[in-house]
Design brief:
Order of helices and strands: EEEEHEHEHEHHEHEHEHHHEEH
Strand content: 15-25%
Radius of gyration: 19 Å
Structural class: alpha/beta
Bound molecules: iron/sulfur cluster
CATH superfamily of the largest domain: Aldolase class I
Number of domains: 2
Distance between the termini: 22 Å
Number of strands: 12
CATH class of the largest domain: Alpha Beta
Largest sheet: 8 strands, mixed
Strand order of the largest sheet: 1-2-5-6-7-8-9-10
């Protein structure tokens, strides 16, 4: 387990195997406020780019981590507590990381700033870019992503297309589907067409499975997901909840600490993070796995999501 402030993991990721996260914007600094966000509501909705977390600090923490730990890591991932491309030094950080290690570098982005040439240029040295696209009409975009008022979905689509033309490495486009919000067939048909025009290497269909920001953000059911997947064509796949590597010893240790805490009392994500000193994003990843394994469940109380240990788990502890 890593306890530095801006580095978290490695965490088991459904898309990236074991991912070491670099958190380069403060908690919840984002250009969107998605209804399905597992981190909670956006507190600083902005499209202003600046060095929110200093490059020097990130590089120093990563250097010390790599010198100390020898975990198996599939990707070093720029992600974190909001939108990483808001950090104006992301390009320089990617270059520095590439100089330090052979571990591939990935960037998880909502794609909102790819209409800016400087952002497209700054991402060019990454090995893998994972942008998301959850709508193709402004109305649906506003309902699902609740973007900053300065953002327009057509500009974002154009930015994604331009980025693809000049980026030689892999792009895996994520489409997050939320029941009753962006899963109507008209929107899906258009999204399928435009996703293929963007021409990513993969189209990864996802639905709400993590603790979402809004309790009304519900998953699309498995049958519907399969139908939608066919509409997206050959590049599309559903991100399978169980497609993950087995937990390693230290991960079991973290998972057990979370279970022990939840056995004593129900906790929110922030509560677990504060008590155990684990980065919030890391807690989210573990809860995702524990929920899929039906070892924990969530309960809503006074608009807050709490996690509890399932009865069977309680008996086995
Ligand atoms: S899901 Fe990503 S893009 Fe959406 S609000 Fe959360 S951090 Fe921002």
């Amino acid at each position: 387990m890593n306890i530095q402030n801006h580095i978290f993991g490695p965490v088991p990721s459904r898309r990236l195997g074991f991912s070491l996260g670099l958190d380069i914007v403060p908690y919840k600094t984002c250009s969107f406020d998605c209804v399905y966000c597992q981190l909670g509501q956006t507190t600083n909705k902005t499209i202003q780019r600046r060095e929110y977390v200093s490059k020097q600090l990130i590089i120093r923490e990563l250097k010390s981590y790599l010198a100390r730990e020898h975990d198996e890591i599939d990707y070093i991932t720029f992600s974190g507590s909001g939108e990483p491309t808001l950090n104006s030094k992301i390009g320089e950080m990617i270059q520095e990381v590439k100089r330090m290690t052979d571990i591939p570098v990935a960037v998880l982005t909502n794609g909102s700033l790819l209409f800016k040439k400087e952002v497209r240029d700054e991402l060019r040295n990454a090995d893998l870019i994972l942008p998301s696209l959850n709508a193709v009409t402004q109305d649906t975009f506003e309902r699902v992503n609740r973007p900053h008022h300065g953002l327009n979905i057509q500009d974002i689509i154009d930015g994604l297309k331009k980025f693809r033309k000049n980026f030689d490495n892999e792009i895996w486009l994520e489409v997050m589907l939320v029941k009753g919000i962006n899963d109507n067939m008209g929107e899906i048909e258009q999204m399928a067409g435009i996703s293929n025009e963007i021409n990513p290497d993969k189209i990864q269909l996802n639905t709400v499975v993590r603790p979402p920001c809004e309790s009304f953000a519900m998953p699309v059911d498995a049958n519907q997901m399969r139908k939608i997947c066919q509409m997206f064509g050959q590049k599309a796949e559903i991100i399978a909840p169980c497609a993950r590597k087995a937990m390693k010893a230290y991960e079991k240790d973290v998972a057990n600490k979370i279970l022990t805490l939840l056995k004593r009392r129900p906790c929110t994500i922030d509560g677990i993070s504060n008590v155990l000193g684990i980065h919030r994003n890391e807690v989210v990843k573990y809860l995702e796995v524990l929920e899929e394994d039906r070892r924990v469940a969530r309960r809503i109380h006074k608009n807050q999501t709490y996690f509890v240990v399932n009865k069977d788990e309680m008996r086995s502890m």
